[in-house]
Write a structure and sequence with these properties.
heterodimer; A: about 200 residues; mainly alpha; Rossmann fold; two-stranded parallel ribbon; about 45% helix; globular; B: about 300 residues
Chain lengths: ~200, ~300
């Protein structure tokens, strides 16, 4: 009888292969390829980023489920907002999210992204990420352990397989709503100036 | 008939390339004491990128870059015969020789350089600068070894070189083989010569700005090109192949050696890798060339 890592693999994959609610075979195949190959942007936005290295390296090995890191937003499918998110970081997250190509997903870690968590009365962090960007999956905890992050990914993959995830469409359709919220916090210029501006002009000062 | 044959060769190279790339990820994972992805993971990745709904474009040169790389890889593949005995799967090898193949090997990187330049991503430009400087250093030992093999056989025809080996060239001229093998590790993008796409320093290097179908095309290109380079190396130094089984075994042994070598060593910086390639493997190749001509 199989035990340990291989058994865990079977249990996780069994969950993945059980979906039947697809429209037709082409949709099913497209969603199958999408769910089995997930590139995660290597970008840590808060304290939860510390849980990501063990998730992707030898101990928890997310690559066995088709989840691997990606260095640039152009190639990424998922951006992880890992914990509290300050106004300054939010500018960067918005630019990065808009640089990613559709279909794209957001995974939010920790209580801070749901309701502000322990930073609920902080002067420079956002309370509810859902107001500024569309979130596909929340992983609860402070901070969630790699096991929980993997479980979050499995749920995300399952929903991608069923064709239920369409947050990028939601963002495009309700762009006014999101833009209004972003501008209310960050002012008229939402996106950060490029670093080069700081050297060439006095934009950053 | 020829068209059918070319299509079949392309299909074989595509599936072998992705199988090998999947094996590379799986074997590297085992080296690192983890389970690793399934063998078909790379194939799924590339199909997923084809299925992306949008792709970033930066003008026509950017658009042409991956296409030039793809055509470079496919042409390289077509001018290398799959088997060196018999008349099957010769492809276009009778219309071109080793000189043409050597030229086509560098066509892809040059096309990529133009596209990356058009993209304007600073990390892409940094990656391509490293890539082209490294390419220059990679060529030295490889070309010296290949030219030595050509002049010793007094032929530039790949089939003639492969079929005239009673014992493998790798054993008859070991120094030439070692010199070329160093370059080959770099050509396969393996450590210690993998500074081009170093994820920590230059993000994905030349591929930074490519997304969606462009990246999918680049992945397919690299799979096909990997297979073509393996077959070329087998023909030049390991006595060619007369059947699929022989070809699979020989390419896999070579491929496994490259992976194992890459897993053992850390990454050289750009100047370090150029210094090393221009000193040690080039010297080995030159000594091999001198010894071979002297004994001949």
């Amino acid at each position: 009888m199989e035990t340990g890592f291989l058994k865990e693999q079977k249990i996780l994959e069994g969950d993945l292969n059980s979906d039947t609610s697809h429209k037709n075979s082409v949709d099913f195949l497209m969603n199958w390829f999408r769910k089995r190959s997930i590139f995660v942007l290597a970008y840590g936005t808060g304290c939860g980023a510390i849980e990501m290295p063990p998730t992707f390296t030898s101990r928890y090995d997310a690559e066995r489920l088709g989840i691997r890191g990606s260095a640039t937003p152009r190639q990424a499918d998922v951006i992880i907002v890992s914990g509290y998110c300050s106004y300054k970081t939010l500018r960067r997250i918005i630019r990065t999210y808009e640089q990613m190509s559709n279909p794209k997903y957001i995974l939010a870690l920790g209580s801070c992204t749901i309701n502000g968590g322990m930073y609920w009365d902080s002067y420079n962090t956002i309370k509810k990420l859902e107001d500024y960007l569309p979130v596909d999956m929340y992983v609860n905890g402070c901070m969630p352990r790699p096991e929980s992050i993997l479980e979050g990914f499995i749920h995300l993959q399952k929903e991608i397989g069923e064709g239920k995830v369409s947050s990028w469409e939601k963002y495009e359709k309700n762009y006014d709503f999101y833009r209004k919220n972003q501008e209310a916090i960050l002012g008229k210029v939402v996106e950060p100036s490029y670093e080069a501006d700081w050297y060439l002009y006095d934009g950053g000062l | 008939m020829l068209f059918m044959q070319l299509f079949l060769i392309l299909l074989i190279a595509y599936s072998f390339g992705f199988l090998y790339y999947g094996l590379y990820r799986n074997i590297t994972a085992r080296f690192q004491l983890r389970i690793g992805p399934p063998v078909y993971q790379s194939f799924m990745d590339s199909i997923k990128f084809f299925l992306k709904k949008e792709t970033t474009n930066h003008g026509w040169m950017f658009y042409l870059g991956p296409i030039i790389m793809m055509s470079g890889a496919i042409m390289t593949l077509f001018f290398i015969p799959l088997f060196t005995t018999g008349s099957d799967f010769k492809a276009l090898s009778e219309y071109g020789n080793l000189f043409l193949v050597l030229y086509l090997l560098v066509l892809g990187p040059l096309g990529n350089a133009l596209a990356v330049g058009a993209g304007g991503n600073p990390f892409g430009a940094m990656g391509i600068t490293r890539g082209l400087s490294r390419l220059f250093a990679l060529e030295m030992p490889f070309y010296i070894a290949v030219i030595a093999i050509m002049s010793l056989n007094s032929s530039a025809d790949i089939t003639t070189i492969a079929s005239s080996q009673t014992t493998f060239n790798a054993f008859v001229y070991p120094l030439l083989f070692i010199g070329a093998l160093f370059s080959f590790v770099g050509m396969m993008g393996q450590s210690p010569f993998n500074v081009v796409g170093a994820p920590v320093e230059v993000y994905s290097g030349p591929a930074s700005e490519f997304s969606g179908k462009f990246l999918a095309l680049l992945m397919s290109q690299s799979a096909i090109f990997t297979f073509a380079k393996l077959v070329l190396m087998v023909h030049l130094f390991l006595g060619g192949a007369s059947s699929f089984i022989e070809l699979t075994i020989k390419t896999f042994i070579l491929f496994f050696f490259v992976i194992a070598f890459g897993s053992l060593y850390g990454r050289f910086k750009t100047p370090q890798s150029i210094d090393f390639l221009l000193k040690v493997p080039t010297a080995i190749s030159i000594v091999g060339l001198l010894l071979a001509t002297w004994s001949a």
